[in-house]
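Q: I'm teaching a short session on how sequence maps to structure, and I want students to see two examples side by side rather than one. Could you give me a first protein with its sequence written out and its structure tokens following it? Keep the formatting plain so it prints cleanly on a handout.
A: Of course. Example one:
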Amino acid sequence: MAIAKAERLMNLALCLLGTRRPLSKRELRGSIEAYLEAGSDDSFNRMFERDKDDLRELGLVIETVESLDGDIGYLARRDSNRLPPITLDAEEAAALGLAAKVWQQARLAGAASGALQKLRAAGMPETEDAYEIQHSALEPRIPVHEAAFEPLMLACRDRRPVVFDYRKANSARPEQRQVEPWTLECWRGHWYLAGFDRGRGAERVFRLSRITGKVRSRAGSFTAPVPDVVTVRETVESWAGETATRSARIRLRAGCGYPLRSRATAVRELGGGWDELEIPYGHGLDAWLVEFGPDVVVLEPADLRADVVDRLRAVAKG
């Protein structure tokens, strides 16, 4: 639904920008397919007025012109909607070029690449060769393999509640969750959704890889206030295990678990193909350790060991 509306707005904007004279509602309705499919004149008029207001909110200057015969027409003059010259220094241009590479595995890859080409055509300086050579090893990517990513991204943007089936790491079966989505955050290569869980009546964080089936949108508005971006990001980091309050001692198979080794505050060789590590222990560490399977053994604390065992048993069941 959101994609169809965006396409309709784009078509209306192109019509208004591409005309040299004001276009009447009748002419616009005959030029845009979505308007042709409107069931009645009333539904078309409501749709057109909403679209016109949305385009104006987005910054498009639309003029309403009345002819000598009293007919009303609309147009968006190019000189009134022309962007000011783009001035970027070399470092800003390099940062934009680097950012455009981030979405190479998502459907946003084409949009990011196209935006970069348009900026260069508008005068954005090319990156210096020396800079490219120096930073060629930097290839930032945000992996987006989960089918839930795009519908959740649109729901966050449009402030629409969603429903999906979610399987917790220590549960054998998924359960339905009704969520008011706030934002998506990427942490250590995994995507998380932060939002208000209506069933629990509290904020929750969901890992996208544990969402099963389709994400379904629901009508209606949010019932809980949306916190600021900084607060939401801190919530995701806390739930995903960023905030550490204690230390854990684990046994790790030699040559395995490099992400764990990078976080270790101490490493000791045990022999026999095993090492002992001390790592920061915060919320979510048990779920992360389960991913390493038989290559990790939790030594202490006891509650972390019990949580990991419970999660492994749940996975084994199904």
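Q: Perfect. Now a second example for contrast.
A: Example two:
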Amino acid sequence: MSSADSVRAAVAAVTDPELRRPIGDLDMVRDISVDGAHAHVAIVLTIVGCPAAARIETDVRAAAASVPGIAEVDVEVGVMTPSERKALTEKLRDGRPPRQMPFGPDSLTRVILVSSGKGGVGKSTVTANLAVALAAQGLSVGLVDADVHGFSIPGLLGIPAGTQPTRIDDLMLPPVAHGVKTISIGMFLRDGEAVVAWRGPMLHRTVQQFLTDVFFGDLDILLIDMPPGTGDIAISIGQLLPHAEVLVVTTPQAAASDVAIRSGLVARQTGQRVIGVVENMGALTLPDGTVVDLFGSGGGAAVAGALSETQSVPLLASIPLSPALRTGGDEGVPVVLSAPDDAAAVAIRELAGSLATQGRGLAGRSLPMTLG
């Protein structure tokens, strides 16, 4: 192999940090020449102002310099033409037409909706931590924040304000936080905006675009943080993803558990399958051993029992009330990372492990263990 071929092979293996694929596979490598110990490398980026430009250039320079005999590298950076970008987006879609649902019944991606009957039960906190715990187990995880009116996922994952997806024509590349590819309406609000005052059609279009226009790549699991209740978005996702599985989150108190049952029943009306119940804000054990049931007890078991009339629905986890869980959410570092020995973190990791081995409920197939 010539020196130029060796440099090309090394450069082609560099991974685009947003697309998570080698730039050689993405047709981003152009002319490469070697003159003695000097290598000239030409690459193209997807768009002008690509956020990953500096990192890609640094990684390309390092890859070329790692080839034996190369002592000096200069990198020429250009931008793809419109026709090249179109070819790239077609390749990323694997031939799927634009705006076609990639998470249909035949997809190998397991889609899990995390729902609750009412707000304030910690559903989004559970979702964010569960996503990070699943990613830490080696799974490729995506997270859609479908709680458009009450979005909180970006903050819970520590995604800086103002972060937006990179756009390649009509494809959006989701930011990655703690190994989780994430999309939320909070990434699209203009400076000073804090409220989304939309009704049915706009909500449906937004959720549909999150599912069809965002390039998540090959996912093992797609979690969807649902808004509380059984309104427009629940109905839209029921229509778009009737094969999805549902995880119902409640607190131990009857006021929450009675309402949580309804979210599971509505999901079933669209054909979705309730795979389990998660009880959040359970009993807190103090350092002296005292147990405090701040929100009562038994709510999770009650929801699981009520939803088991037609099929078995297990209580998959009881997550104790935890100051560390709250602190992690405020600081944007999920408790499964910030305080892994905390009782809540342990319960969430066990929940992730249970889901990872549970298999794909509707299709009866085991969960694919795709790494990366």
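Q: What should students look for in example two?
A: Point them to this: Residues 254-269 form the longest helix (16 residues). Also worth mentioning: The mean pLDDT is 88.
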